[in-house]
Design goal:
The complex is a heterodimer of chains A (111) and B (123).
Chain A lengths: L8 E4 L5 E6 L11 E6 L6 E4 L13 E6 L2 E6 L8 E9 L2 E6 L3 E5 L1
Parallel strand pairs in A: 1-9
Antiparallel strand pairs in A: 2-6, 3-4, 3-7, 5-6, 7-8, 7-9
Chain B lengths: L2 E5 L2 E3 L5 E8 L8 E6 L6 E6 L6 E3 L7 E6 L4 E6 L8 E8 L10 E4 L3 E5 L2
Parallel strand pairs in B: 2-11
Antiparallel strand pairs in B: 1-3, 3-8, 4-5, 4-9, 5-6, 7-8, 9-10, 9-11
The chains are: A mainly beta (111), B mainly beta (123).
């Protein structure tokens, strides 16, 4: 069982917005502003979408946004596109390990 | 362009050993700490080990401590993971990932990942 809890799946239609949650504790998500989100298409390298809760690396579409409230972080994807269909993972710095912790992943289906 | 390319995965018997490599390019390898992360089927990723930019500090997950060893050769821009006493639950796709700082004992981000190499443990 992963340390951070994500919904197993979410779905949305093209053009809609969806939000993926990532729930941890005060020892990880709630205690630090080092939450990251990754996108992984099958057979491809995971891609960093969001770092430090809400920052986007250069080249990442502004349709992707991150936020945090208490022990729960969220990734919102607006204007869903077919190419957004992928697995999404959150991770966080944690006080209990130098290696960080990950969520179990959320499969996004674009209907 | 930052590139990380893993190799060395394959089929190994329980109790066996394997060495994974990760060839880095497109950035100054010696300036960054690196991680090995694995993902077993149907599970979330798990970071297994980290090594500082100078190789002087390493850290391991409890699940692999004493069985796996991380190292790096900055002259070859290559990261390694020596895996021993392999078990069925070590079966996973193994990724190398760049950490955003030179140090492992600070908060940071895994900002670039390779495509992974599959390790299968079976008799």
């Amino acid at each position: 069982q992963s340390a951070l809890t994500q919904p197993a799946s979410v779905s949305g239609s093209p053009g809609q917005s969806i939000t993926i949650s990532c729930t941890g504790t005060s020892s990880d998500v709630g205690g630090y502003n080092y939450v990251s989100w990754y996108q992984r298409h099958p057979g491809k390298a995971p891609k960093l979408l969001i770092y430090e809760v809400s920052n986007r690396p250069s080249g990442v579409s502004n349709r992707f946004s991150g936020s945090k409230s208490g022990n729960t972080a969220s990734l919102t994807i607006s204007g869903l596109q077919a190419e957004d269909e992928a697995d999404y993972y959150c991770s966080s710095y944690t006080s209990s390990s130098l290696l960080g912790v990950f969520g179990g992943g959320t499969k996004l289906t674009v209907l | 362009e930052v590139q990380l390319v893993e190799s060395g995965g394959g089929l190994v018997q329980p109790g066996g050993s394997l060495r994974l490599s990760c060839a880095a390019s497109g950035f100054t390898f010696s300036n960054y700490a690196m991680h090995w992360v694995r993902q077993a089927p149907g599970k979330g990723p798990e970071s297994l080990s980290a090594i500082s930019s100078d190789g002087g500090s390493t850290f391991y997950a409890n699940s692999v401590k004493g069985r796996f060893t991380v190292s790096r050769d900055d002259s070859k821009n290559t990261l390694y993971l020596q895996m021993g006493s392999l078990r069925a639950d070590d079966m996973a796709v193994y990724y190398c990932a760049r950490f955003s700082t030179p140090y492992i004992a600070t908060a940071g981000t895994l900002d670039y990942w390779g495509q992974g190499t599959l390790v299968t443990v079976s008799s």
